[in-house]
């Protein structure tokens, strides 16, 4: 029964109890307010003219500001719950006093305008208190579901008030309505206590607690006013509320004034007004329960806020043309029906992205002072145009039409600001999450060297030098020259190597000195520097200094022989290099490493030797050869680099070297990425290479492979495209292709829930493998969304959805619900809403995915046929756990799979299959 009611009211599981309590509170408050409105209008108009209502409205707006100032001062000293309960008890006592005065002292003429003004004050405070309480206990997503129900309670209160006002006015007189108000407000005080005791009050940090705090209470009217003007979003809300109050109060006056022309007696007016509110309330309740929540989910609050002003514009046009009581009823009826359903729920949602720390100050000020300021302004308009310029109620529609234009403009502004505020809310959460864990990026090489090259530990210095060495622009830093005198020989040798690569000529005297360094490796590096950069004969240096290892001598001689000039002899240099490349034995590795490094500095005619070294079995030799290929950037050597991607020890260096080629090897990378015969480990390195190249052609290659079947490779392709478009926003992507891939990812995600549902899993948290897989699916979906909507910070929304804070999670969902297209929103948001169960997602998947799983066996087979090793492991586990002997063949094939986790899971499942258990998947 409860489930049926939840579905009928379009609320989520667990929302019904709290929504019912809040709905009952608003029912009693709005019922009391409407009863007071009927009684106050009838009693006032029985003694005064309709035009004199304007003075009462002006008085009410002034008094509201004064009373709110006192209320704010009191609010600082009391718990919010006690403040609400105390206010309700105070209002209830006021009603009893007014009833006594109206019943026993009816000759006191001031009682009736005083009661009319008091009703306006109660309307400003009472309903605002209930909606503020709802903002405290509901998150953004909960509110979007529950506000329709809560607003329905308010409308039901209006219906009941209309019915009760009609019956009591005819049977007991208008004054008796005040006794009903006294009782209803008293009951509402008890309901507030029940809501508070539910233990779901949201405080400033966004977490649920059972208590409250006065820290978020408004300090004073000045502070609230300053806060209001400090934010364009707050100002936009205030403008919408002010225009709404101003326009609807004018239409309310038109309705009363035209009614006064046709209805004269006090009790007749009270009965008519009661009937009006009764039938308008019924229509409003139908709108609220059947349309509001669905309209908000379908179109968002931006469209919903336009509904009422457009309706009032059309209704005012009707009054201007016809001027009849029926046209006034239609105008005011549209206002009442929509104002307390779609428009009220939408306006309340505007406050949800605001933190609890400032919400109370802003909301109270806007909903009381700003709202009643609209009442006061409408009173001023009536006094000027109706009293002094003698405009008829019909002609006031000209003013209404002009004001509605401003109202529509204000709605347009607040709609944009709402999205911006939601984005900023989840972006702030993203900053809070990332600032503690994100590394310091984009620091210049100069700053890094200045800080680290003065370290005392040689290993720290070598690390800093290695970072400098990989910089593409190797500008010489004075700190490196100073390291030529460092006490550690390995530091001196590394510094010489970097200075040689950069061609720094200023350190030649230091190099001549270092030829006599006590360390052999340092002397070798100095010899190679002088040979490469000072153009000296290495044999003369060797003869002068002596004590050089054989490989350094040969390397220096080769460098001398290949230098253009009279001494150039390429054939002799080739013979020496052939001997170095072919050398074996204990010294062979160091000699071949030196040959590989030297080949990176020599002409292209020695490329065949470099290909030989690329295929060398020694990792150090092959890595040095790869670096040399990156320096030479000869396309003929690219196939050798691509082959090196298959070796996990060479993969990083090969990728770095390939990146040096830039756009010239896009074709080779495209062929390699799309070739299924190439090892998958090698193909998975290509996306990062394409990011490094960073051209439109690179982006096109990634786009062409977005539907790659390998899960890991597809994720890397999507991630690479994200990075590429972020760094180079000028690169255009194919929107239709992205939407196709996104749809496929979303359907695949729904299919995962079909499998979970058929396997009887309670949720994705039951198995870490399934949880990880589903998380990866969601990340791919959000990365694709980031490509489709580059102007929206969807990564921040993704991080917000991972937050444990219910308010941050709700704001992230609301942001997506607001900015995404309706078709995409309807598919995606149910996957992200924690209130939607696995079963509900599976049922939605059954509508979206034509192929359904008729049995548990079918679901497990789908797992076993997945490209994801995690899901295949889950399938193997399920075969053993559920004792599915019909799938034993699938299990046997897993025993020989290349994936070790799958093999181990299959072995364990095989044992369970031979001795079945009835335990469900944990």
Question: How would you concisely characterize the structure shown here?
Answer:
With 922 residues, this protein is mainly alpha-helical. It is 74% helix and 0% strand. The chain is built from 43 helices and 2 strands.
Write out key terms for the chains shown:
single chain; 922 residues; mainly alpha; two-stranded antiparallel sheet; 43 helices; 2 strands; 74% helix; disordered C terminus
Describe this structure in words.
This protein is mainly α. The chain has a two-stranded antiparallel ribbon with strand order 1-2. A hairpin with a 5-residue loop joins strand 1 and strand 2. Helix 4 (80-104) runs antiparallel to helix 5 and helix 34 (735-758) runs antiparallel to helix 35 (768-788). It starts with a helix and ends in an 8-residue tail after the last helix. Mean pLDDT is 76; it is low at 201-218, 430-449, 471-475, 761-765 and 916-922.
Spell out the blueprint of helices and strands:
Blueprint: H1 2-9, H2 16-45, H3 53-75, H4 80-104, H5 111-137, H6 140-172, H7 177-196, E1 201-202, E2 208-209, H8 221-229, H9 232-262, H10 266-322, H11 325-339, H12 342-349, H13 356-388, H14 396-434, H15 445-452, H16 458-469, H17 478-482, H18 489-502, H19 508-514, H20 520-533, H21 538-545, H22 550-561, H23 570-582, H24 588-599, H25 607-614, H26 619-632, H27 638-644, H28 651-659, H29 666-674, H30 680-683, H31 686-693, H32 696-704, H33 711-727, H34 735-758, H35 768-788, H36 794-802, H37 806-819, H38 822-832, H39 838-848, H40 856-864, H41 869-882, H42 888-894, H43 900-914
Antiparallel strand pairs: 1-2
Helix pairs in contact: 2-5, 2-6, 2-7, 2-10, 3-5, 3-13, 4-5, 4-7, 5-13, 6-10, 6-12, 8-13, 9-10, 9-11, 9-13, 9-14, 10-11, 10-12, 10-14, 14-36, 14-37, 15-16, 16-18, 18-20, 19-20, 20-22, 22-23, 22-24, 23-24, 24-26, 25-26, 26-28, 27-28, 28-31, 31-32, 31-33, 33-35, 34-35, 34-39, 34-40, ...
